[in-house]
């Protein structure tokens, strides 16, 4: 009838009780001079308590300070207890293992049942997987919630949760497939239980994205649909894109080479507002053609790159306009850059270095958008394409990189 705890309070927030505990010192195998003896602990019928509430039961386990923690507890990966003003006393247990397919590691899973004294019982499930051709992660969580959120107050119901899936697949012919899905029970669940993801994570999306990239060009397909009716989000049903980067066109003697960049898009876009606002959705067909030519000139260590561009956008008739609109605008500017570097004669180390080069590239870029035929107020703001307006920008940048050389050893 043993009770023990690592809590520093006189009446511990959490503790464990076992029907029987046995501890003994043991010598390491093949003990050498100075080798440390380890402590072996055997526990029977152990219960984890949060306060006086039992939250988890372990029939039997054996622990030793002479072996890694993950080998001692088998499927039990973590036990966390704590106290906070938001959730009260909390206890979480991580139960998981690795997944093998054909004797090769495919991924891992983790189940995390939890008890929050101010909220209720809940659980999470995580799945991560990686192969040569694809990788992904699946996240699911459920919480029976009887509390109140800090940001949005009382939730609409006690049954709350989320499901999120991200998958990337590398297909033949240089094709990349991305699949994403996100469902949230209500707008307050993410900021309340996943605050960091809510503040700095990517947007919650449900989409299919295909890209075929070859050398300096790429063809893309995007279909995105809103699932969570409390989100303010733009749908693409679908969007087709073509990108061409820094394509040499022709030489002007030994003076310079004209380069061409293109960014084309054709899409049916729809903006959906949160259902609670009772605002009609807006939609339109849109074709956007953006072209830029650059003429880089080297003058000693300085690279001058004047550029000019023309952009054409056509909006089809829809719920925001009664007839098609053609928008035209121009772009011009110049960028200045140079490259500074130093080589360090180093080799070996855990990073397997063979020389190390530090490269610094400072640059200044001035650009001006001019002669835009329509004001941004003429269009609904679906995304950055619609924010095209007359403006001037001056940008300062500093890029740094470290480079080394790796030689692959081959058999003679």
Task: Summarize the structure in words.
- The protein is mainly beta.
- The protein has three helices and 22 strands.
- It has helices at residues 69-72, 189-193, 195-200, and strands at residues 2-4, 14-26, 38-50, 53-64, 76-84, 88-101, 104-116, 120-130, 134-144, 159-171, 175-184, 207-214, 217-224, 233-252, 256-272, 282-294, 297-299, 302-315, 325-337, 340-348, 353-370, 391-403.
- The chain has an 18-stranded antiparallel sheet that branches.
- It is extended.
Brief digest:
By secondary structure, the protein is mainly beta. Helix content is 4%, strand content 63%.
Please render the helix and strand layout as text.
Layout: E1 2-4, E2 14-26, E3 38-50, E4 53-64, H1 69-72, E5 76-84, E6 88-101, E7 104-116, E8 120-130, E9 134-144, E10 159-171, E11 175-184, H2 189-193, H3 195-200, E12 207-214, E13 217-224, E14 233-252, E15 256-272, E16 282-294, E17 297-299, E18 302-315, E19 325-337, E20 340-348, E21 353-370, E22 391-403
Antiparallel strand pairs: 1-2, 2-3, 3-4, 5-6, 6-7, 7-8, 8-9, 9-10, 10-11, 11-12, 12-13, 13-14, 14-15, 15-16, 16-18, 17-18, 18-19, 19-21, 20-21, 21-22
The arrangement of helices and strands along the chain is EEEEHEEEEEEEHHEEEEEEEEEEE
**Major pleated sheet:** 18 strands, antiparallel
The class by helix and strand makeup works out as mainly beta
Query: How many beta-strand segments?
Result: 22
β-strand amount: over 45%
Mean pLDDT: 88
Please state the overall shape, judged from the principal axes of the Cα atoms. Answer: extended
């Amino acid at each position: 009838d043993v009770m023990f705890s690592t809590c520093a309070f006189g009446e511990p927030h959490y503790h464990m009780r076992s029907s029987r505990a046995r501890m003994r010192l043991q010598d390491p195998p093949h003990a050498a001079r100075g080798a440390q003896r380890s402590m072996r602990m055997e526990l029977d019928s152990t219960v984890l308590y949060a306060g006086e509430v039992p939250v988890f039961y372990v029939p039997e386990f054996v622990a030793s300070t002479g072996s890694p923690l993950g080998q001692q507890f088998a499927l039990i990966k973590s036990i966390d207890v704590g106290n906070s003003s938001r959730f009260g006393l909390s206890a979480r247990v991580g139960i998981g293992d690795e997944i093998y397919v054909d004797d090769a590691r495919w991924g891992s899973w983790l189940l995390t049942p939890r008890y929050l004294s101010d909220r209720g019982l809940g659980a999470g499930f995580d799945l991560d997987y990686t192969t040569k051709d694809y990788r992904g992660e699946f996240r699911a969580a459920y919480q029976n919630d009887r509390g109140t959120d800090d940001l949005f107050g009382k939730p609409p119901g006690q049954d709350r949760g989320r499901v999120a899936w991200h998958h990337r697949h590398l297909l033949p012919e240089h094709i990349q497939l991305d699949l994403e899905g996100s469902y949230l029970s209500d707008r307050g669940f993410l900021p309340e239980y996943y605050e960091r993801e809510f503040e700095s994570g990517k947007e919650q999306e449900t989409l299919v994205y295909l890209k075929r990239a070859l050398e300096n060009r790429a063809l893309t397909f995007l279909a995105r649909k809103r699932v969570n009716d409390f989100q303010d989000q733009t749908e693409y049903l679908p969007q087709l894109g073509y990108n061409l980067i820094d394509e040499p066109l022709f030489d002007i003697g030994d003076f310079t080479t004209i380069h061409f960049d293109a960014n084309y898009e054709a899409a049916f876009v729809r903006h959906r507002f949160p259902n609670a606002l009772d605002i009609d959705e807006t939609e339109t067909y849109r074709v956007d053609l953006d072209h830029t030519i650059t003429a880089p000139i080297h003058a000693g260590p300085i690279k001058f790159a004047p550029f000019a561009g023309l952009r054409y956008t056509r909006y089809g008739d829809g719920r925001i306009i009664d007839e098609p609109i053609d928008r035209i605008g121009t772009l011009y500017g110049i960028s200045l850059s140079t490259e500074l570097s130093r080589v360090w004669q180093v080799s070996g180390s855990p990073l397997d270095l063979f020389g190390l080069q530090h490269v610094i590239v400072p640059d200044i870029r001035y650009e001006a958008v001019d002669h835009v035929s329509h004001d941004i107020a003429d269009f609904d703001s679906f995304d950055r394409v619609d924010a095209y307006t007359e403006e001037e920008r001056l940008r300062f940048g500093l890029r740094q990189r470290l480079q080394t050389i790796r030689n692959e050893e081959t058999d003679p």
